[in-house]
Amino acid sequence: MIDNYNEHLFKMISMNINQDSIDNFVSYDDKKINWSEGLKKNLARKIVIAYEDSRIRKALYRPFSIQYLYFDKYLIERRYQMHIFFPISESEQDNHIICIPSIGSRYNFWSFYSNHIVDLNLTSLDNTHCFSILYIFR
User: Alpha carbon of 16 to those of 5, 21, 24, 44: distances in Å?
Assistant: First the structure.
């Protein structure tokens, strides 16, 4: 995905494409890249994205379902406070969060405790609010 993004960026620069034409310029192939509005804005700003192994993190996608996530500010538009709760992978050893349903929950109260980045649609029933329990800098 990152290679595909950067390839589009270099083509855009070499072809002198202006930001008003980006929607027509990018190739929409969801198997390679999904062009969100934020990603197109990064392209217009000519931001190069570099791959880093340290950005591969464990994340709680659904309850009891841990998956790997590439945690990058240019590729994830809505990180909310997760980058503060878990700034580096080592912080997952010390920092923990409690997640509860957001205001106006359609279902009964529930809570989850995690030491990983959490998808804010954790239960797929309601949006989720997370609160830090311990905040330690290394």
Answer: 16, 10, 14, 11
At residue 126, does pLDDT exceed 80?
A: no
The DSSP bridge partners found for residue 118 are: 60
Its pTM stands at 0.76
Going by C-beta distance under 8 Å and a sequence separation of 6 or more, which residues neighbour residue 95? 85, 86, 115, 132, 133, 134, 135, 136
pLDDT in tens, 82-116: 888 888 888 878 788 888 887 766 667 788 888 88
Contact 124, 82 (CB under 8 A): no
- How many other C-beta atoms lie within 10 A of the C-beta of residue 118? 22
Phi/psi at 137 (5° precision): -90, 145
Domain map of the chain by residue range? 2-44, 54-132
Phi, psi of 53 (to 5 degrees): -55, -35
Q: What is the C-alpha separation between 39 and 77, in angstroms, rounded?
A: 8
Residue 90, token pair as written in the block: 């080592």
